[in-house]
Write a structure and sequence with these properties.
The structure holds 2 protein chains of 2 kinds. Chain A is mainly alpha-helical. In chain A, helix 1 packs antiparallel against helix 13 and helix 10 packs antiparallel against helix 13. Chain B is of the alpha+beta class. Chain B is 28% helix and 20% strand. In chain B, strands 1, 10, 11, 12, 13, 14, 15, 16, 17, 18 and 19 form an 11-stranded mixed beta sheet that branches. A 4-stranded antiparallel beta sheet of chain B has the order 4-5-7-6, with helices on one face. Chain B has a two-stranded antiparallel sheet with strand order 2-3. In chain B, strand 10 and strand 11 form a beta hairpin. Chain B starts with a helix and ends with a strand. The chains are: A mainly alpha, B alpha+beta.
Chain lengths: 308, 545
């Protein structure tokens, strides 16, 4: 177990540097004239251009710039964005709200998916199963660019159940609607996977044995079937967390949440290399850690899986 | 190793993550609809140092924190505000500014001439890289505070430093009087000083002479009717509250929350829900429903934005003026503003915006009148290009109208026309600089100060800062210059009008549309006025009692 963890952590270091390097290189290749991008269509004076170029080493070669960046990052300094704000400050503002949003979304989605998935897995072909099938198909068919503004219009403005926007320091209630929208991205697939896993496991030999032993139905489904069915679902949720953090661009835009997705969008739009790489670096870490946790959970769910 | 241990590790770690993040209490600072406070939506400002703030979000906030030297009356003529008087010598070269006595910054420092001079010297000093430094280039000595040319020409690092630290044209007379000497006479100088870049800065702004104190930008101190409450909460909001005992015009509200939105559509949702009191620009997506949603709280007022397409002079197929005239006549401006902009913009048939003194309607005359048959005859006679391109930047929402314009040209002239989207404005400019055949270029302009010169100079003069298409006419240049040095504003306007008449003959661009502020407000407020700089008039706005 310990050796396994050390090995995974070492792999994470390599993955981390590889990922940041690739993102930095991509941003560099995309960078045309960040000063122009920042200024929009307003004329830029020579002096202003010169000062900004010097401050951000914009005229240095790629390796030079990457070296400056890496040097800063290893000493805990993510640098400053082109608007002059410290990127570490921007991250401190943006991460908490996005993490809250993503966790709320994932908890809601997982709760709904597992509950409904188990029920429809047990009663395959029943009314509940068919209704959820249709509902999940509808949710899957609606892209988030439609779903987010639509739910804002219906539940935020017309019905006035939720505040239409959330802001930087929202209450849990204000985040509920964006979290529901975001969660709907993944709930359908999670539900379908749970349903098929439950359906399969119900026919497994050990379930027959458990029944034959005279265990209650509750215990058979709640412990034996569910525990084994959760493995593929947990994998899916682990991947989804990373996806939700970065995939929140649309949701964060519609509900005015200045989180990670918004900052990534802004950074890409203004060709702000350090800003994008800073956020992506942390995203990479989140992704790696979550997947490590998921792998550890496998062992918990299935005693046959051991890590050495 | 037993299978039970990883279970606990994983659960424990997950619990820690959840505790650390998910369950952090909500510290929502809900100040929105309290008492006599209004909430106005903006975008995240780029900067809040006056001389570095060149976009409307920043200048909106700064307008509440600072008291300008000059304001503008209904005829867009400059009137002194923080200044007691602004007088020019007979040649309009030396300007004397007397300040009203007794004013203080919100930290209690008295406002003196030094505050203006220090702020302006900081703004103009090249190495400070201030976005608004070009406003000071008319002041004598501006060239000396810019960094010298790079001697070896291989990068900016080794450029020679500026010759001087301060503008030689700024002189203090006494604590409330100073003079500005311009390098060339300019009758419109008083109007220029109305811009954000000319606000004063308190001593507290500088940690050393010529160095802005770190953190000052997040808690700007101004001489205006409001002061910042706490700090600039980036991407969230900026709260300002009334300064007790303010000597100037006192606003009717006690405070403003400048609420920051990333997206105008979500701001509009909050306007409808009553979480924001004023939205200065309603996005085009919401325009169709705005009149129904807001009723008489949906309003329009003119602003200075001007959209046009330019003919690159390096493309020889546009050299014939008849080609340019024909293309202009092939476009139905009214249809475009009605169908695509739903009346939020107005057709442009002049070369300067209606918001400046000296504007005359329809200076473009027949050249801007929709006349497809005449256009086709003219175009065919002049052998205009059979294949036309209009290049625009795709990130600005221009596709719809450029395509519509192309359709109109296609229908009127029977030629091929395609809209070409470049990803960003910078890409478009790069292509223009490399003289690649981009066809017509989509451009727009928003003025810095309400003078005809601010359209004619930057857009059409040979060395104009935004004359990307390379139009050059010596007679025009000299008329603009004559207007600038004319002893009185009235005489200046005469010269500038003559210059505009040349444009109508040369047609270097096709004027298309003038912008409007299309704004809305909640039921809580009244007397909402958005001025020609697209800023909310914070002195007029009131809470409905």
């Amino acid at each position: 177990m310990f050796r396994y963890l050390v090995r995974r952590l070492l792999q994470m270091v390599v993955t981390f540097f590889g990922a940041t390097f690739i993102v930095y290189a991509l941003m560099f290749a995309n960078q045309d004239d960040p000063i122009r991008a920042l200024a929009g269509e307003r004329p830029i004076s020579q002096a202003e251009r010169q000062v900004l170029t010097e401050r951000y080493h914009l005229d240095a070669s790629f390796w030079h710039q990457y070296w400056y960046y890496l040097k800063g990052m290893l000493t805990g300094d993510f640098g400053t964005s082109l608007t002059g704000r410290r990127i570490s400050d921007m991250m401190a503002d943006a991460w908490p709200v996005t993490v809250r949003l993503a966790l709320m979304a994932i908890v809601i989605a997982a709760a709904v998916a597992i509950l409904a998935g188990v029920i429809s897995g047990i009663r395959r072909g029943g009314i509940f199963d068919n209704v959820t099938l249709v509902l999940t198909l509808i949710v899957l068919a609606l892209p988030i660019v439609v779903l987010a503004p639509l739910s804002q219009l219906i539940f935020g403005i017309k019905l006035d159940w939720f505040p239409p926007t959330a802001g930087l320091h929202p209450s849990a209630y204000a985040l509920l609607l964006p979290a529901l929208v975001l969660g709907s991205l993944v709930v359908a697939t999670e539900l379908r996977v749970t349903r098929s896993a439950v359906g399969e496991n119900l026919r497994a030999d050990y379930v027959r044995t458990a029944r034959a032993k005279g265990l209650t139905r509750q215990r058979v489904v709640g412990v034996h079937v569910l525990r084994n069915s959760l493995i593929p679902v947990i994998t899916l949720i682990g991947v989804d967390i990373g996806g939700l953090m970065s995939g929140a661009i649309v949701t964060e835009g519609v509900f005015n949440i200045p989180g990670v997705g918004f900052n990534l969008f802004r950074g890409i739009h203004t060709e702000d290399g350090p800003l994008v790489v800073g956020f992506v670096s942390v995203l990479v870490i989140v992704f790696l850690v979550v997947n490590l946790l998921v792998d550890l959970l496998y062992a918990a769910l299935d005693p046959r899986i051991r890590y050495e | 190793m037993s299978g039970k241990r990883p279970w606990k590790t994983a659960v424990g770690a997950t619990a820690v993550v959840l505790l650390a993040t998910g369950c952090s209490g909500s510290d929502s600072s809900n100040s929105s609809s309290t008492s006599n406070n209004v909430v106005i939506g903006i975008g995240e400002p780029q900067h809040l140092i006056p001389s570095n703030s060149t976009e409307s979000n920043g200048s909106d906030v700064l307008s509440s924190l600072f008291y300008p030297l000059v304001g503008f009356d209904a005829d867009k003529k400059p009137v002194p505000v923080a200044a007691k008087s602004i007088t020019a010598n007979p040649t309009s070269k030396v300007w004397t500014i007397k300040l009203k006595p007794g004013f203080t910054f919100s930290n209690g420092e008295p406002v003196t001439s030094d505050n203006y001079l220090n702020a302006w010297n900081y703004a103009a000093y090249g190495p400070n890289g201030q976005g608004g430094s070009y406003f000071f280039e008319r002041i004598s000595g501006y060239a000396d505070v810019q960094a010298g040319k790079d001697p070896d020409g291989d990068g900016p690092q080794k450029g020679a430093g500026p010759k001087a630290k301060e503008l030689s044209g700024l002189k203090k007379v006494d604590d409330t009087t100073f003079t500005v000497t311009l390098s060339a006479p300019f009758a419109g100088w008083a109007s220029v000083m109305g811009y954000t870049a000319f606000y004063p800065l308190p001593k507290a702004a500088f940690s050393a002479p010529g160095v802005i104190a770190p953190g000052f930008e997040d808690a700007v101190i101004g001489n205006g009717p409001f002061k910042i409450k706490g700090k600039w909460q980036h991407d969230s909001q900026i709260q300002v509250e009334k300064v007790a005992g303010f000597k100037g015009t006192v606003p009717k509200i006690d405070g403003i929350t400048w609420k920051i939105y990333q997206d105008q559509t979500s701001e509009y949702a909050d306007l409808i829900a009553g979480n924001v009191d004023v939205q200065t620009q309603i996005p085009i997506e919401s325009l169709a429903s705005a009149a129904g949603d807001l009723g008489n709280r949906f309003q329009k007022s003119p602003n200075s934005s001007f959209t046009f397409v330019g003919f690159p002079t390096f493309q020889k197929e546009f050299a014939n003026v008849d080609v340019r005239r024909a293309l202009s006549m092939a476009v139905d401006r009214k249809e475009m503003t009605d169908q695509i902009f739903l009346g939020s913009q107005t057709p442009a048939t002049s070369f300067v915006s209606p918001v400046v003194a000296g504007y005359r309607p329809n200076t473009c005359g027949a050249n801007c009148e929709y006349n497809p048959s005449a256009a086709k005859a003219l175009y065919d006679a002049a052998h205009g290009p059979r294949d036309l391109k209009i290049t625009y930047n795709a990130d600005g929402g221009h596709k719809a109208w450029v395509d519509a314009m192309c359709n109109q040209i296609r229908a009127s002239l029977g030629i091929k026309c395609t809209g070409v989207g470049e990803p960003k404005f910078a890409d478009l400019l790069t292509k223009v600089e490399k003289k690649q055949p981009v066809g017509l270029i989509r451009l727009a302009w928003t003025m810095d100060y309400p003078l005809m010169e601010n359209f004619l100079g930057p857009l059409y003069a040979t060395d104009g800062s935004s004359n990307y298409y390379g139009y050059s006419n010596p007679t025009f240049d000299s008329l603009v210059k004559q207007g600038s040095v004319a002893p009185s504003p009235a005489e200046a306007i005469t010269k500038w009008r003559a210059a505009e008449d040349i444009l109508a003959k040369d047609m270097p661009v096709i004027p298309l549309r003038f912008g409007q502020n299309v704004y809305g407000h909640s039921e809580r407020v009244k007397n909402v006025d958005v001025d020609l700089f697209s800023k909310v008039d914070i002195y007029k706005i009131e809470i409905v009692k």
